[in-house]
Amino acid sequence: MKNINIYILIVTSLFLVFSCETTELDLRDDPNFLTPEQASADLFLTSIQEDFVRQIEGDADFDPNDNWVTGGNTNGDGLSLFGTELTRLTASISSKQYSTNYLGSDSDDEWVNAYQGVLADIRSMVSIAETTGQVRHIAIAQFIEAYVMTAMVDFYGDVPYTETIAGIDNLNPALDSGASIYDAALILLDNAIVNFESEINAQLEPPTIFFYGNDYEKWVKATNTLKMRLYNQRRLVDPTALANITTILDSGDYISATADDFQFNWPATSPSQPDTRHPRYGLNYTATGAGDYMSNWLMNQMNTSLDPRIRYYFYRQTGAVPGASGTPPNEETLQCSLQSAPAHYVSGGFTFCNLDNGYWGRDHHDDAGIPPDGFLRTTFGVYPVGGKFDDDRFDTDPDNAGVAAGSGGRGAGITPILTAAWVDFMQAEIAMVNGNTGDAQTFMSAGITKSIAKVQSFVSLDSSADTSFEPSNADVTSFITSVETAFNAADMEGKWDILGEQYFIAVFGNGIESYNFYRRTGYPTTLQPSLDPNPGTFIRSLFYPANEVNTNSSISQKPDQAQPVFWDTNASAPAAN
Question: Which of 21, 188, 203, 252 has the greatest number of beta carbons closer than 10 A?
Answer without folding.
Answer: 188
